[in-house]
Amino acid sequence: MRAIEPEYIVMPNTLFTEMPAASIQPAASKIITTDVKAYFGKTQALKGISLHIPENKVVAIIGPSGCGKSTYLRCINRMHEVAGGTISGSILFDGENIFDYDPVQLRRRIGMIFQKPNPFPTMSIFDNVAAGLRLNGRASKKELAEIVERSLRQAALWDEVKDSLNRSGVSLSGGQQQRLCIARTLAVNPEVILMDEPASALDPISTAKIEELIFKLRENYTIVIVTHNMQQAARVSDYTAFLYMGELVEYGDTKNIFTKPSIKQTEEYITGRFG
Predict the structure, then answer these.
(1) I want to staple 157 with a disulfide (CB 3.0 to 4.6 A). Which of 76, 175, 179, 217 is the partner?
(2) Ranges assigned E (strand) in 157-203
(3) Which DSSP category does 114 fall into?
(4) Are the CB atoms for 176 and 162 separated by under 8 Å?
(5) Beta-strand relationship, 86-93 and 29-40
(6) 12-59: per-residue pLDDT in tens?
(7) Is the pTM of this model over 0.70?
(8) What is the DSSP code string of 61-74?
(9) Within 13 Å, how many C-alpha atoms sit on residue 205's CB side?
(10) CB atoms inside a 10 Å sphere around CB 138
């Protein structure tokens, strides 16, 4: 199966009969997944997902619970294997097979933010951000301080914590903890950031801050975000992919997906008729 560019509309032959929309010249792709299938034991979670993720863009993955959104995300940085899952198909990162990478080094370049904030409970705010750098032993004390400050600024958290960097990371509010986790990810200088429903457990004010942060980060990073929130997907993403029962139903420009989807199933999901 050929990987689908973002400007294509995707139609699995097993479910739909509409014709796909015409394609246009694709943007540069940071990640290309081709016929990706994922399994938990004998249970198949993904049934051949093929799409391109453009560089320095935000791609939203939407779909009902259990459709494979988070599994797809975890395949991209090989976290699916940590849970004992298996993957088949091709996943290229900058044109290279991700299975040729050491998993730890791959996850440095493809960072991940989880649904529930997970700062290290025994570490200070400073040490949470510096943890990955210390693990790699690449920064002097001065460099460490500079990178921590830069990462906290990028995560829009510096002004709130600059006078209390020695406090425990878990002493922060939920929204601040999530931005701390984003700063920790940014500190090791990734190229891609995967976000698995990063605002689902947050209040509206914290959610707005996370969305504003995504807008700023897209200038320098490729972002893939899983979300159940249709309004959030419409607000923050350049492209949207709709998954259903482990299959890719439709993928294209976010505005088109939400205003004139080509597949009836997509329209029914977006308008709340199921899911």
Answers:
(1) 179
(2) 192-196
(3) -
(4) no
(5) antiparallel
(6) 433 333 333 333 334 589 999 999 999 999 999 999 999 999 999 999
(7) yes
(8) EE-STTSSHHHHHH
(9) 3
(10) 12
